[in-house]
Design a protein that fits this description.
It is a single chain. The chain has 221 residues and is an alpha+beta fold. The chain has a single domain, classed as Peptide methionine sulphoxide reductase MsrA (Peptide Methionine Sulfoxide Reductase, Chain A), CATH 3.30.1060.10. It contains five helices and eight strands, in the order E-H-E-H-E-H-E-E-E-H-E-E-H. The protein has helices spanning 55-63, 85-89, 110-119, 146-165, 194-197, and strands at residues 46-52, 68-76, 96-103, 128-129, 132-133, 139-143, 174-177, 185-186. The protein has a six-stranded mixed sheet with strand order 7-6-1-3-2-8, with helices on one face. Helix 4 links the parallel strand 6 (139-143) and strand 7 (174-177). Helix 3 (110-119) runs parallel beside helix 4 (146-165). It is globular. Keywords: Oxidoreductase. This is Peptide methionine sulfoxide reductase MsrA. It is an enzyme of class 1 (oxidoreductase). It catalyses: [thioredoxin]-disulfide + L-methionine + H2O = L-methionine (S)-S-oxide + [thioredoxin]-dithiol; L-methionyl-[protein] + [thioredoxin]-disulfide + H2O = L-methionyl-(S)-S-oxide-[protein] + [thioredoxin]-dithiol.
Length: 221
């Protein structure tokens, strides 16, 4: 099943068992922004999790955004605890490649991050992004509050109208809570800020060329 040309998510029973603790450590600070990668984060900052294909190029998109305090890449939405990169790429953990974005909402809004998310990839491709094929490349938003969930859903509906008008299919992006059933596991050290360390490295990120309307999400309250 997992070696077929059409990727299939594993069931919890099929997933790799994983391990109680990670096999590797994560660097203390961001190589570009200089801030700590792991929490706790300063008061007033918020966390957002986005999956939009290969996390190398996706992370750079976000760290280049004003108001973003730190970013790190990892794995989320699967079943295997503390997975390794090779395990995720096998399709046997169920995880996505995710960018965790820690941002200052007084400087950049969650809607602005959503706009960047939608415009940086093709959210209609299912288990792939361009030439990258696999369940780990699926599009997803993992939300950290009801307000984030409302805004993510509203932006998906708005962007669907834009895509449909240009001949694209249905958005396959999942919007799910980043709760205890979907923990974020940081990726190995060499993946963190990969394109800063390897400026000529692979970047598979590419959007549809269509603008996502912002200001469409519901206000809090």
């Amino acid at each position: 099943m997992f070696l077929s040309r059409t990727p299939v998510l594993p069931t919890p029973e099929q997933a790799l068992r994983g391990r109680p603790e990670p096999e590797f450590s994560v660097p203390e600070r961001h190589t570009v922004l200089g801030n700590p990668l792991l929490g706790p984060y300063p008061e007033g900052l918020e966390v957002a999790d986005f999956a939009l294909g290969c996390f190398w190029g996706a992370e750079r998109k976000f760290w280049q955004t004003e108001g973003v305090w730190t970013t790190l890449v990892g794995y989320q939405g699967g079943y295997t605890p503390n997975p390794a990169y090779e395990e995720v790429c096998s399709g046997l953990t169920g995880h996505t490649e995710v960018v965790r974005v820690v941002f200052d909402p007084s400087k950049v809004s969650y809607e602005t991050l959503l706009k960047l998310f939608w415009e940086s990839h093709d959210p209609t491709q299912g288990f792939r992004q361009g030439n990258d094929v696999g369940t780990q490349y699926r599009s997803a938003i993992y939300t950290h509050s009801p307000a984030q969930a409302d805004r993510a859903e509203a932006s998906r509906e708005a962007y669907q109208k834009v895509l449909t008008g240009s001949g694209y299919g249905e958005i396959t992006t999942h919007v799910l809570p980043a709760d205890e059933t979907r923990p974020f596991y940081p990726a190995e050290a060499y993946h963190q800020q990969y394109l800063d360390k390897n400026p000529a490295g692979y970047c598979g990120i590419g959007g549809t060329g269509l603008s996502c309307p912002i200001g469409v999400a519901k206000a809090e309250g």
